[in-house]
Amino acid sequence: MALxxxxxxxxxxxxxxxxxxEYSGVKVELVESFEMGVSNKTPEFLKMNPIGKVPVLxxxxxxxxxxxxxxxYVARLKDDNLLYGSSLIDxxxxxxxxxxxxxxxxxxxxxxxxxxxxxxxxxxPAEEDAISALKRALDALNFHLASNTFLVGHSVTLAxxxxxxxxxxxxxxxxxxxxxxxxxxxxxxFWTMVNQPNFRKILGEVKQTESVxxxxxxxxxxxxxxxxxxKPKNEPKKEVKKHEPEKAKAEVxxxxxxxxxxxxxxxxxxxxxxxxxxxxxxxxxxSNTKTNFREVAIKGFWDMYDPEGYSLWFCDYKYNDExxxxxxxxxxxxxxxxxxxxxxxxxxxxMLVIGSEPPFxxxxxxxxxxxxxxxxxxxxxxxMELYDWKKVDISDEAQKERVNQLIEDxxxxxxxxxxxxxxxx
Length: 425
Ligand SMILES: N[C@@H](CCC(=O)N[C@@H](CS)C(=O)NCC(=O)O)C(=O)O
Prior knowledge:
Pfam families: EF1G, GST_C, GST_N. One of its GO terms (molecular function) is translation elongation factor activity. By secondary structure, the chain is of the alpha+beta class. Helices cover 40% and strands 13% of the residues. It folds into three domains: 74 residues, Glutaredoxin (3-Layer(aba) Sandwich); 122 residues, Up-down Bundle (Glutathione S-transferase Yfyf (Class Pi), Chain A, domain 2), CATH 1.20.1050.10; 155 residues, Alpha-Beta Plaits (2-Layer Sandwich), CATH 3.30.70. The strands form two sheets. A five-stranded mixed β-sheet has the order 4-3-1-2-5, with helices on one face. Strands 9-6-8-7-10 form a five-stranded antiparallel β-sheet, sandwiched between helices. Helix 1 runs antiparallel to helix 9. It is elongated. The termini are far apart. Glutathione binds next to loops.
């Protein structure tokens, strides 16, 4: 009789068990009708795993949760299974790499990925921590694999299956070739593993991601989806099906839903006395000026600028010495601009990422409605406190010239080349 695995068919934690099953000649079938966020919240499911996470394996002796435990259980169903090694020291090493793959690789991949997907708050220093901890783990793995084809012994073991499934999430979603080329033995190992026939049956053709996804807004906590009602007794057995490899990317995170929008309160900035400066006109002028930027856009800006109704601010990132990875620095600035979306009606901004070598400096200029930085922006956009803010004194020609240079992406800026310039408009 087949064992029943509750998980969606793209769940990389379920892949561990399905690959072990292929190697061990054990029948494991996925629940056909499984719907993430619904099926795993039913009272029936919570009885099997009180935390409501997948995968869960239903066995004749009761359910098992935690993907590594499930994979071990399935491996043990076959006597003398070589996936489990053949000596005490092998058992120890296999367990060692399973823990390493879970705690040093998987945990850091998830710490990097979840905030990017908007499933956790995106904090640039936390992203840097996750990446550097992941690199440390990959470096250690790379060192081991420089003189070993497999993690333990001379054939595939449970350690390789768990490690490869965890790396799979990284290779398919975050770790570009540019990132992994630093770890050539890990690359060789990963591609060798995913092309073993028993892996291929489950994973299908694996493709390395070509880019790190852009940071998305953190979603607000949502109401759980309506859980499916507990099934009445004697209901026909749930549909199960044999796993077929999916082209889709592995599901590595929990589901969240959008909240219904709440009615908006009036913004206090809408109550300010009218200004002669029309922000949209300035944004249009900025966007449409392709030549003679100084003479047209910059001059136009100062002609329009209303120091009563608006204020200009320089910002300077407080932790520039941490900007050691170019794309992380660019993501950080990109995330800041995304989070400023709430201020689009009231602000214009320029952000420069400066330098040709790390650490990169991040500096910017912002135009805000009102004579101070609007309180709702300080309250709602946590990036604000990562910068030092200085109000521009427009009676000082040097400061005005700095404003001009920031608006026009002047290069070199303060003697250094630009890595990137981003505009919020
Ligand atoms: N340590 C667990 C992790 C399980 C886990 O995080 N599962 C995710 C999907 S990959 C989940 O079910 N999330 C749903 C939730 O958090 O409610 C394992 O290896 O099985």
